[in-house]
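Hey L., structure's done. Input below.
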Amino acid sequence: METYYLVFMGRVQGVGFRFFFQNYAQKLDLTGTVRNLENGMVEAYITGEYAKIELLLKYIKNANPYIRIDDYRIKKIDYRQFDGFKVCY
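Output:
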């Protein structure tokens, strides 16, 4: 198990991004959080197997025709344990 910090740029707010992200992360048994940032980006913390995180990233790029990910950053961070996967407000 590893934990990653991600930041997504593009059309990722107001298009269901967090809902799709949370839903698919739960299906993959990933834990963490996802939330909107004031600058229009979305950040996420995810704990799980890296192969499953890669699947999540592939899925979210095509989850909804309104979502447009122009770029994202991913960084491995110190392990964090989460209770499920939550959307933060």
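The longest strand covers residues 2-11. The chain has a mean pLDDT of 96.

-- N.
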